[in-house]
Amino acid sequence: MNSRRETTTSDFSQGPVWKIILAQSVPLMAAQIVHLLYNIVDRIFIGHMPGGNGAIALTGIGLCFPIITIIAAFTSLLSYGGAPLFAIARGAGEDERAEKILNQVAFQLLCCSVVIALLSYLFRKPVLYLFGASDQSFPYADDYLLIYLAGTAFSMLSTGLNSFINAQGFPRHGMMTVTVGAVTNLILDPLFIFVFRMGVQGAALATVIAQFVSFFWVMRFFFSDISLFHFRRELRAPDPVLLKEIVSLGVTGFIMQGTNSLVQIACNVMLRMYGGDLYVGIMTVINSIREVMSLPCQALTQGSQPVISYNYGARLYSRIRAAIRFNTVAAGIYTMAAWLIVIFFPRQLMAIFTEDPAMIDAGAKALFIYFFGFVFMTLQFTGQSAFTATRCVKRAVFFSLFRKVIIVVPLTFFLPVYFGTDGVFLAEPISNVIGGLACFITMILTLYRKFPADGEPMPENA
Questions:
Q1: Are 46 and 31 in contact (CB under 8 A)?
Q2: CA 346-38-305 angle, 5° bins
Q3: Which of 345, 368, 390, 459 has a C-alpha 20 to 30 A away from that of 130?
Q4: Domain boundaries in the chain?
Q5: What does the alpha-carbon distance between residue 98 and residue 86 come to, in Å, rounded to a whole number?
Q6: Residue 117: is its pLDDT beyond 70?
Q7: DSSP labels for 173-207?
Q8: What is the DSSP string of 305-343?
Q9: pLDDT one-digit tens code per residue, 19-47
């Protein structure tokens, strides 16, 4: 047996599944919480900028979200596609294939980052106005985006390759990737924004420096003896067959992030039309709160993916069933608790990001509507992660599209005609209920119940 394959931390076929998932998820959760500080801390400090410009500055930052999300989508296309294949190869003992997947993803992340940054820079003005900018909010959005784009390569490589650190069974190292960057951002943000009075430009510069620190940490890991797999020049040349596999599986993550961008654009446009810049700023705050509230559930299901993929490659299907059951129960308990927090403390949550009384008043009502039925997101997360980890690409893609493109976007344009700005916020809970139930029920019927006994091949119609 290959000595690289078996270590006490990277063999996911031994021990209680729930403990392994938590061992993967808790450091990942901590890392993602810290990672949120990259953007959340920016928004908090910007919302409290001196001079009374915090509200309109938040609106400007919100207009950049779709572009930032597109960058994340292309990162997901490669990392979400490569990491499960990498884990499956490890589970099957195919170390050479695993190392080639790592190298292919790393090189393509670098190439994509250069192209995306260049195109975003050249077309930023018409794109920002298309996304709902006004003459008042555009300068803030432009100032932030100009500097933020300089860190595109650092962001994509550190985030994308961190999945391969976790998939090797080193979640604590993965946690440190974002921890070192976020701590840097936390220190530099108030320094640049308030001491040097750089405003949104200072927030963007702090983020870029933090992204570079995270990138440096990732490179340090892969060039060390700790990593089980390393970069090799001869494996970087594009392999069309392997890249097709990576992209085919990663298209799920790409669509999830890409449709998030589409939803953000639709919301900004309709809120600008029916409520003005104030409501675009409110959506910026709601997106921030949603990211925080969704994070533990996402970390749990993402942390389980390499575990599920590994056992899928090893044909240990009973362990996959156990992982899916654990995800459903644990995520369900958490999302119910998060929903109750939003219901009882909406004004306090809004006040974290802004001092504007009008934004707090209107935002508290919007939060109550937007998070109604949040518990149903458990079903979407659990079903989606199971499909992705077991290479059920078509189903994973369909349900990514179904919830956002088929449900949320049309409702975002349709409901405001009758309910005004409330209609924009209503689209989310409706999609959570319909999309979550459809995804989870399909996963149970077409995947969970089709797993054979351990060691047997999957049926062809599964």
A1: no
A2: 85
A3: 368
A4: 17-450
A5: 5
A6: yes
A7: HHHHHHHHHHHHHHHHHHIIIIIS--HHHHHHHHH
A8: HHHHHHHHHTT-HHHHHHHHHHHHHHHHHHHHHHHHHHH
A9: 888 888 887 777 667 667 666 777 888 88
